[in-house]
Amino acid sequence: MADFHQNGNIATLHNLRTRSLDELEHELCTFADTRKISLILPCLYSELEGAAMPNILKELSQVKYLHRIIIGLDAADEAQFRKAKEFFKGLNQNHIVIWNDSPRMLELGARLEALGLAPAEQGKGKNVWSSMGYMLGCADSSVMAIHDCDILTYDKELLARLVYPVVNPTFPYQVAKGYYPRIGGGGLNGRVTRLLVSPLLIALKRVIGDRDYIDYLRSFRYPLSGEFAMRTAILPDLRIPSDWGLEIGVLSEAWRNLAPKAVCQVDISDAYDHKHQDLSPEEAATGLNRMSTDICKAIFRKLAADGTVFTANVFRTLKATYYRSALDLLEAYYNDARLNGLELDRHKEEQAIELFAENIMRAGQVFLENPYETPFITTWNRVHAADSGFLTDLTAAARADEAEY
């Protein structure tokens, strides 16, 4: 049964199992009459052929309170774009598939490149940013939600609980972050949160002292979840990271732009499982190896921007402190798994900790060598200031692709 604990930094909205989904959805439909809700689905074409998307589509087709669904499609050629359009015909809501690799979209990308405002790399961050641009160009939504497209345990209650805190006009929240337990396949998952982010934040507090930002991040039960809901008024000034630091970056933006009382986390699922990234210990540019380095850099950059001074000695101390903290947490995770009948391979867990410890040093070295690195995509307000017709042209290009192909 859920607890009712509050951490005192941000509000935690629990699932106390005292309200039916039908009642929740009825209230959302009432709110949606005046507060339109758009859902963004950033996906790769390959995910349409996976096990998760057919069920996600089936569940979403039953949701009545959504105004629009925006599917950002990456890594697709023309034939695959046509197949994607056919795939999403099962949705009952107003929806559009944005072909991010279309000639029209590439032409718009070149236009941004000429202005020096183009995203630095392809990936989920750019996909989310482009989809946000389309939604802002439509100018008719009050709330935006995002969730991943590889959720094997998806049901429509996840979305209802995610959007409710920011749709309800009597609530003060501008941003809602979803959380859930990461269990699946008889095991305890969520390695990067458990074995990197949580012990790293503990270590940072011990090494550099109390920081409000560290306490803020530690308040989130699952800071790396890909499920957000936001009121659209904050989106034009939102900086989206282009690397694997997307989720931490968005939380950092909420910290920078909003008061803590405007941010909440909400319990959206009893069990959540999705595609697992490989550890990739031999490949620094892929898998959890790359992800862990990018996440560390995102946290270091934010702390530096708030006045923390980092040196090589600080990073060496941080690595040692992290390693001890991670092993201590591993003991707790192992016992928790055993109590609940779940598998946890301690050898593989310690291998991950060793890799993450090395990546703390790698991220620190990259930061020291290039402290001015800014992997954030330009805000939409700045794009509008540089090219006032860009959002209109982006919306028109997506609709032209939809009509032509």
Radius of gyration: 21 Å
Strand content: 5-15%
**What is the CA–CA distance across the termini?**
50 Å
Point out poorly predicted stretches: none
Specify the helix fraction band: 40-55%
Biggest sheet, spatial arrangement of strands:
1-11-6-9-5-2-3-4
Structural class category: alpha/beta
Series of secondary-structure elements, N-terminal to C-terminal: EHEHHEHEHHEHEEEHHEEHEHHHEHH
Q: What is the number of beta strands? A: 12
What is the overall number of helices?
A: 15
Can you put this structure into words, describing what you see?
One of its GO terms (molecular function) is glycosyltransferase activity. With 405 residues, this protein is α/β, with parallel strands linked by helices. It has 15 helices and twelve strands. An eight-stranded mixed β-sheet has the order 1-11-6-9-5-2-3-4, with helices on both faces. The protein has a two-stranded antiparallel sheet with strand order 7-8. Strands 10-12 form a two-stranded antiparallel ribbon. The chain is globular.
Question: Features of this protein?
Answer:
405 residues, alpha/beta, two-stranded antiparallel sheet, 12% strand, glycosyltransferase activity, Glucosyl-3-phosphoglycerate synthase, EC 2.4.1.266, Nucleotide-diphossugar_trans, glycosyltransferase
Question: How would you summarize the topology of this molecule?
Answer:
Elements: E1 11-13, H1 21-32, E2 37-44, H2 45-48, H3 52-60, E3 68-74, H4 78-87, E4 95-99, H5 103-115, H6 124-138, E5 143-146, H7 156-167, E6 175-179, E7 183-184, E8 187-188, H8 191-208, H9 212-218, E9 228-231, E10 240-241, H10 246-257, E11 263-267, H11 287-305, H12 312-339, H13 346-369, E12 376-377, H14 380-386, H15 390-404
Parallel strand pairs: 1-11, 2-3, 2-5, 3-4, 6-11
Antiparallel strand pairs: 5-9, 6-9, 7-8, 10-12
